[in-house]
What does this fold into?
Amino acid sequence: MFKVNCLNPIAQAGLGLFSDRYQMVDNFNEANAVLVRSADLHSLVLPSQLEAIARAGAGVNNIPLDRCAELGIVVFNTPGANANGVKELVIAALLLASRDIVGGINWVKANAGHPELAQLVEKHKGQFAGTEIKGKKLGVIGLGAVGLLVANAAIKLDMEVYGYDPYISVDGAWKLSKHVKHSTSLEEIYRECDFISLHTPLTEGTKGMINGDALAQMKDGVKILNFARDLLVNDDDLLEALQKGKVGCYVTDFPNPKVSGVGGVISIPHLGASTVESEENCAVMAVQQLMDYLENGNIKNSVNYPDCEMGVCTHAGRIAVNHRNIPNMLGQLTAVLGQENYNIANLTNKSKGQWAYTMIDVETPLTPEITERIKQIRGVTRVRIIK
It folds into this structure.
C-alpha cells in the first residue's frame, strides 16, 4: 500500500486515478509520495520512506531539489499541462498593455454613481485610448510549452512575431508556426519589438536579464510581459525605465511591493495557471507520473533525476537504484546481482548531471537481502524492489 499526502488541494480529476493500492494520508511524515502545488518544502524534514514528490505545475523553486536527490527522492513536475491557461492570460495581457482597459474600468467604478455617467463617458473616454496589436511586433523569449503557444496564437492575431530560444526542442521546432521569425540574438528582439513576452526559466544566467543594458536597447514605449518568473526582471532598472517613458507598460503575473501600484504596471495575482482545466491537467499528469514511478520504476518529467523508461516489468523481478553518476556503478550493481545468482534479463541506465538511475529486470524473484547488499555500494542513495 502506497501512502500519499497532499500538501495543497489537488483536483479530484487526478486523485480519482489512484487505485486501491494507494491510501491518502493527512500526515506528511507517513507518506511514500507527496503531491504539492505552492507549499514550501524547504523547511520540512523529509521522512526516510518518502520516495517521490510531484509538483502539480511547472515551477519547483518551493522544493529542495538537491536535498531530495541526495536522499533518492525523485521530484516530478508537469510541463505543458497548464500551458494553454497561461497562454490565454498572456494574450489578455497583450490587450491590457496596448489599451488602457484597466484604467478605463477603474474610472467607471470611481464615477459609477454620477447621474450623467453616459455623457461623462463620452467626454473622458479619450484618455484611455490605445493601439491595436494587429501588425505590431511581438518578441517571445523562450519557446517552451507556453512560449510556443503564445507565438503561434499571436501569428493568428496578425502580429509579426520574433522568437528566440537557442535550446528549443525538436518537437517544439516542429510545432512552431513557420511564420515566426527565428531570432538568433536577444539584441534583435530588444531592437525590433513593440511587445516582449518572457517565457524562459529562472537560472543564474537569466536572473535579472531585463536590466538597464537590455532596456536601453529597446524601443521607446516598449511593453513587457512577464508570465515566467519575477526575478527575470531587475525591478530598479524597470522602474527607472517606466519613469522615463522607455517602457510604456509592464504586465506581470508576480506582484511584489516594489512594482505593484506603480503607474504603468499591471500586476496580476499569479493567475496564469488558475483555471479549472489547468489544475485538472496538472493533477492528472502528476498522479500518472507518481503511479508509474511507484509501480513500475519509470521516471518521466523529473527535475532532479534522469527520465528513464522500461515499461511494465514482464520478468520475475525489477530492481530500481537511485545513485550518483560515478564510474563503475553499473559494474558494481551487476557484480552483486551475479554473486547472488540473479540472471539479468533487461537493464537501462540514465544519467543527469551528478545523478543517475538504473533499472534491472531479473529472471528470478528478488529478495530484501539483495537491496541491503546494493545499499552498501558507495554512491547509492535508494534501492527499491519494484516486483
Observations:
- The longest strand covers residues 344-352.
- The mean pLDDT is 96.
